[in-house]
Amino acid sequence: MRMRIVAVGGGKGGVGKSLVAANLAIALAEGGARVVAVDADLGCANLHALFGIERPRHTLGAFFAREADTLGELAIATSVAGLELVVGSGAIVGAANISWAQKQRLLRQILALDADVAVIDVGAGTSYNVLDIFDVANVRLMVVSPTLPSVQNAFSFCKGAVVRALRQAFVDAGVDPALGERRETERLTATIARLSLQHPALGARIAHALSHFNAMIVANQLTRVEDLDLVHALCRMTHDFLGVSANIVGQIYQRPAIAQSVIARRPFLLGAERDDPEARMFRRMARTLLDGVLAEPGRASKALPPAGGPDMGAFDLDPSALRAHPRHAADWAATLETENGIVEGMIADVSENGVRFIGPCGRPIAVSGTAIVCVAGFSGAAEASVRWVSAAEGGRLVVGLELTGGSLTGEILTKSALRYAAAG
User: What is the domain count for the chain?
Assistant: First the structure.
């Protein structure tokens, strides 16, 4: 397999980028890949601490000081077979302020690593150094926590990465002036559409680049299923405003064992039981990547549906706009009929314009497709549009459905859910 690069970023510090990078690298190595993890959090490196490595002899500082010619010379073995680590440079004043020449040398050496997969732990912020390291990757993972500042920063980070990548890729094609002339609040998709009208061939090339941007989201520090609402809002924003599909590839819930692993300086996966839900999630993420975009160069990640819901401003993200209507818990047996057949499951919650359906991962459910929803105990049915599909534990799928018609309206379901909750 040709060497592939997974960058782990997200814009905001403290959301768990290093934790995700460390455990994902372990899971990839367990899956049979030769992996090199590179701590490229310039100036705030701590990936080695998560592996229990104290006082590393060689760091990226030696590389920038030209005491080492390649990153391979700095790679040290870890306790995981098939996984090596390049320790970052931290606690050095100015370590984050590398020159353009140093950055280019670093990027070249990342591309030259002798491995199947390189996992790059990227620093916080949206500086050019951070964005260029993130954009060298074949797969761009954004780690977010279910808080408004994290989602806002992740969107700004993704926007910066997209714009930077387009400027770098089409520097001689007139893209940079077009991006520079756009209003700050104008959607990037609108800017590109206007550019495509003037230069159709260039527009097609940009559309292809965006479809292969391969951004994915890891939702971290979750405490309840409802926390995913904010993360799905980020998915919709990246699609609507940036023209980039970013599906949720991992959902990590807060667990005492995870926090303890950081304190103990031992990666979570190395001490977790095989059937631990979060351990399974990290390994599932690795398998998804190894079997998908990492296996086939140039392959695009699975796209999310065209986003629905309220128009959320590019920067003025109002928490009340993240959900058009409040959700109300339900626990109703239901069936979902799509073009691929009928799936039996349950309605987990409802709102005035949608429901959340949970069922087995049997028949494929097409995002953006149509469906018929029938609920046990209710007469009639509802017509729906599949807005998003996400994996859940236990071999299940969680499907977000927007109700579009039929006798079983969202208003009826919402009122019934309120009565159901009151009766409970």
Answer: 2
